[in-house]
Amino acid sequence: MIFGKKPKPADAGPTRQAFETPRCRAEVAGTAAIARIRVGFITETETTPLLADLEKAAAESPGLKLAIDLADVEALASAGIGMLVRLHQGLKAKGGRVTLFNTNDQLLEMLKIARMDKLLDFKPSEQNAIAALG
Prior knowledge:
Blueprint: E1 15-20, E2 24-29, E3 32-37, E4 41-42, H1 44-59, E5 65-69, E6 75-76, H2 78-93, E7 97-101, H3 105-113, E8 122-123, H4 126-133
Parallel strand pairs: 3-5, 4-6, 5-7, 7-8
Antiparallel strand pairs: 1-2, 2-3
């Protein structure tokens, strides 16, 4: 992602809006849910309600498959990283999957330093994320 420019969403086929909150907008595209996070800096304050939004979004898809759009996220506090790990583990325990996409270069580098790329699945685009979820 070019800093300051939001990439255009890929055509993942017909989508339907599932719900919208101040923190997240969820859609369903085929068999996957797409959650578009609207919080620029995810701190401890946002993690509990945002985790609830993301779990609700995953429940919208038949197989608990969730693609998370991080285009608007500029930074994550450690609580935000913990939230993504809890979400991943919770969905995996129920047979679901999560992948993240549109991560800006600085955020992706920070997550790689924290070795989150060994646990979480990162894709460059919405199309790649949906394809990875099957």
